[in-house]
Amino acid sequence: ATIVIRTNQDADAYKDARVRRALAMAVDNSVCLELGVAGLGKPAENHHVCPIHPEYAKLPPQKHDPAGALALMKEAGMADYEHELISIDDDWRRNTTDAVAAQLRDAGIKVKRTILPGSTFWNDWAKYPFSSTNWNMRPLGVQVLALAYRSGEAWNECAFNNAEFDSLLAQALSIANADERRKVMARIQKIMQDEGVIIQPYWRSLYRHTRPNVKGAEMHPTFEMHLYKYSIA
């Protein structure tokens, strides 16, 4: 369960990977976690594969570097460009996106915030040049990547089109053993980071509240309720 702040690579402003990387470098994901959901989660790593996914590969930490972000933006000739960052008007998603915009401004990058009601936001959610979207959990990392980042997919809101990524993902999807698949996933995750595909601030913690005498009702990552496991002590 997460939120991604992504650029759409079909937009002229975001075709250059330097621009996309600069946006990610300017954002401290832990700050978004604190301001967006009061710290109720864990920082993410900008590749949309979660530590609870069986094939997750641990990569070196990414650096929060506002000065480097502005320098990279200048190198790309985009120092004076005003980015319009769009979000839905819905508490944690709005607050998280506000935290991203504030950090971009602190780095010297110009940002205009646009907040839309849900009735408007979801009409064109996959087409905005720069926006935030919440994503729910899929059991495998390869499922998320195939749905959201493979070239030509209907839910590829980033318009990410990368032949090496697609080839590696096809390879990963063919490997049943998670330990073997992880070797390929490390390269896939690194491509996501290097290409600046998304800013992914955090993974949300999910909760289910029960009375102390209710047993077997632990929270499920996809909100499933397995009632045959429930009992009353």
State Rg.
18 Å
Strand arrangement within the widest β-sheet reads: 5-1-6
Q: Helix count?
A: 8
| Helicity level | 25-40%
Strand portion: 15-25%
Q: Which residues sit in consecutive blocks of at least 5 with pLDDT less than 50?
A: none
The number of distinct β-strands equals 9
What kind of sheet is the major sheet?
3 strands, antiparallel
Structural class given helices, strands, pairing? alpha+beta
Mean pLDDT: 97
Large-scale geometry: globular
Brief overview:
With 233 residues, this protein is an alpha+beta fold. The chain contains eight helices and nine strands.
Q: Which SSEs are present, and which pair or pack?
A:
Layout: E1 2-7, H1 17-25, H2 29-37, E2 41-43, H3 66-75, E3 82-88, H4 92-106, E4 110-116, H5 118-121, E5 130-135, H6 141-148, H7 163-173, H8 178-194, E6 198-199, E7 202-204, E8 214-215, E9 231-232
Parallel strand pairs: 3-4
Antiparallel strand pairs: 1-5, 1-6, 2-7, 8-9
Structure characterization notes:
- The model has no long low-confidence stretch (mean pLDDT 97).
- Helix 4 (92-106) links the parallel strand 3 (82-88) and strand 4.
- The strands form 4 sheets. The chain has a 3-stranded antiparallel beta sheet with strand order 5-1-6.
- Helix 1 packs antiparallel against helix 3 (66-75), helix 2 (29-37) packs antiparallel against helix 4 and helix 7 (163-173) packs antiparallel against helix 8 (178-194).
- It contains 8 helices and 9 strands.
- With 233 residues, the protein is α+β, with helices and mostly antiparallel strands.
- The protein is globular and about 65 Å long.
